[in-house]
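worker-3 :: picked Hydrogen peroxide-inducible genes activator
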Amino acid sequence: MPATYLPTLKQLQYLVALHDHGHFGRAADACFVTQSTLSAGIRELETLIGVTLVERTRRVVRFTPLGDSITAKARKVLREAEELGDLARAAGRPLSGEMRMSVIPTIAPFLLPRILPKLRRDYPDLRLFLREEPSAAACENLQNGRTDCVLLALPFSCGEISFEPLFDDRLFVAGPAAELGSIDLAMPADEIDETRLLLLEDGHCLKDHALAACNRPELRAEATMLGTSLHTIVQMADNGLGVTMLPEMAIRAGILDHTGLAARPLAADNPARRIALAWRPASPREKDFRLLAGVLAAAH
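worker-3 :: tokens ->
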């Protein structure tokens, strides 16, 4: 019976890195090897399976259609190989070892400073690597195995996931006090001047949550959507350019400190977004994720 030669995990890692970076040098750096080592590893893989995966030119690295398909399969193989280690860790101490968590930008700067000290104190063996990125990228990286879990706001279409709801984060209308009216009362959505509304640009789910909560289709057409962060939006509002909507966690974290802005709770049918921790279904670290979710919920 002839011997069967299988691709090595190292070869698959090189292939995935090249696909992610589109450049041999950057892929080699990501794998902590020389460019010649990475290139030779991918050539060995191509020889082993008898097909060309990558078209090489001086300026461009272009994957063949079959190369794209095999890379997608390689991601799954690598993810399952990593889960072998996760199984061992799950059988040992809770919340220990490495964990990669993506956090969306409208949560990270407001919640993490409160929870990280507690995690370091209570779970010193946990090495939590954080990645701040918009919801779509975070969900894609979760599905591809680049991250282990995602701290995000729902509703959001994140593919096939398991998740643990943490808490509801109420939305507020923020702007100059004279423009908001009575700050002691919730502000009805129909009182928001659509021509003065400042929102985050496309790609941030908070914008969609705010618009959905208001249930006013004309807001999407009239609002100015150009803020790249909540801090930028606040500065624009503080300079008289309009009003905006902020999550309660940002206000509690002091985002309006040292400004002339006030905030009123939004009065609407669904005036909040739901903060949740999500992970891939059937992950061997599900108990860890649920434990982490409990820590996050208690610390908020």
